[in-house]
Automatic annotation (TrEMBL):
Protein name: serine-type D-Ala-D-Ala carboxypeptidase
Keyword Protease applies: yes
Purpose of the protein: Removes C-terminal D-alanyl residues from sugar-peptide cell wall precursors.
Keyword Lyase: no
Top EC category: hydrolase
Keyword set, alphabetical order: Carboxypeptidase, Cell shape, Cell wall biogenesis/degradation, Hydrolase, Peptidoglycan synthesis, Protease, Signal
Length: 390
């Protein structure tokens, strides 16, 4: 038998904070999304991980230079693990020399030369800003000893991040049999990068980079649109992939991630990403539903000391909602059992928090006891026994 409790008004709990609680799928609202001219696409709320709109989000496609997002992610994890530092000096090898590698002909380069010495930070900027295939190889050799070993690390992180339709064969994204990803997976990877160290993510907003007397512009043209507030992430293109872009913008505390795969042109992919970001910012907001450790109510605990327990969430919980629906959203909690009986452990799940809009269930989260409740003494337990029986 389920024990229901009073409805809570969600809008009175809205608050801006720093941690996300992921939701995987779009909520059932009837907002009409923009028409997107691309093979596949996703618009994700970066705080919650919710997909706000999508088209063919799980279609496996050639990621092209979007592969470099994983290259940068692996490098950043090596820094976090203190295996390398951003200031380490790297000597460029022959295999990272564009002029000496036929597969690099006509592709994006930082224009490194064998024997060049530069820092991990500068090579990372070459990967992100110049989309340098040579910089990817130099970093792979330094971090893992070879491109093959580095690709192994990339695919390990594919597993750790739960990217269900992604596999890498190269460190740079040039066409290779068996290499593929999806708009959904690349949005998840982008979210992990944004949630990483801020100084590493800052590189994705840099517009130009000069090396060996050559200055190149970031190929993400949306960075120059001051009204859109885009600060990353990456573009990619090959003949088989079409024109890809991942763009993230933030307005106030509301951050979105737009992924376009298989666009028709360089400008076209930017226009499609722009449509997604503008639609998302105009129509949605991210609200905090509940605060970790804040009581939503108090419940009697039979045979307990104390005799009541505060209940709530052990996590900060967020949801992305249409702006015109926020005032309609409410929450209630449901206790799993008819009565709570001691002992209870702190953060023990005892029920479910349900978020509803006009009686339609939007999301559910664990309801927990916010503190430990031990068994009371024999006298209190005896009184409780009599009360329950009679």
């Amino acid at each position: 038998m389920l024990k229901r409790r009073a409805t809570l008004v969600v809008t009175s709990l809205v608050f801006c904070a720093s941690h996300a609680f992921a939701q995987d799928d779009a909520l059932p609202f009837s907002l009409a999304p923009p028409t997107i001219d691309a093979a596949s696409w996703v618009l994700m709320d970066a705080k919650t991980g919710q997909i706000l709109t999508s088209g063919n989000p799980d279609e496996q496609r050639n990621p092209a230079s979007l592969t470099k997002l994983m290259t940068g992610y692996v490098v950043d994890r090596a820094i976090d693990q203190k295996r390398i530092t951003r200031d380490d000096k790297v000597t460029v090898g022959q295999d990272a020399w564009g002029a000496g590698n036929p597969s690099f002909k006509g592709s994006s380069l930082m224009f490194l030369k064998p024997g060049d010495v530069l820092t991990v930070r500068d090579l990372s900027r070459g990967v992100i800003i110049d989309s340098g295939n040579d910089a990817c190889v130099a970093l792979a050799d330094y971090v893992a000893g070879s491109q093959e070993n580095f690709v192994g690390l990339m695919n390990q992180y594919v597993e750790k991040l739960g990217l269900k339709n992604t596999h890498f064969e190269t460190v740079h994204g040039l066409d290779a049999p068996g290499q593929h990803s999806t708009a959904r997976d690349l949005a998840i990877l982008s979210r992990a990068i944004i949630d990483g160290e801020p100084d590493f993510y800052q590189m994705y907003s840099e517009k130009t980079l000069s090396w060996n007397g050559i200055t190149q512009n970031n190929r993400n043209g949306l960075l120059w649109d001051n009204s859109l507030h885009v600060d990353g992430l990456k573009t990619g293109h090959t003949e088989t992939a079409g024109y890809n872009i991942i763009a993230s913008n933030v307005v106030g505390n509301h951050r979105l991630i737009a992924v376009i795969m298989g666009g028709k042109s360089s400008k076209g992919r930017e226009e499609q990403a722009r449509k997604l970001l503008v639609w998302g910012q105009n129509n949605f907001d991210t609200v905090q539903l509940f605060h970790a450790g804040r009581a939503l109510g108090n419940e009697t605990v039979w045979y307990g000391s104390p005799h009541t327990v505060a209940v709530g969430s052990d996590k900060d919980l967020y949801l992305s909602l249409p702006k015109n629906e926020i005032n309609n959203v409410k929450a209630k909690y449901v206790i799993d059992n008819k009565e709570l009986v001691a002992p209870l452990a702190a953060n023990q799940k005892i029920g479910e928090i349900q978020v509803v809009d006009k009686d339609q269930l939007l999301a559910s989260y664990p309801l927990v006891a916010l503190q430990q409740v031990e068994e009371a003494g024999i006298f209190t337990r005896a009184i409780d026994y009599i009360k329950r029986k009679f």
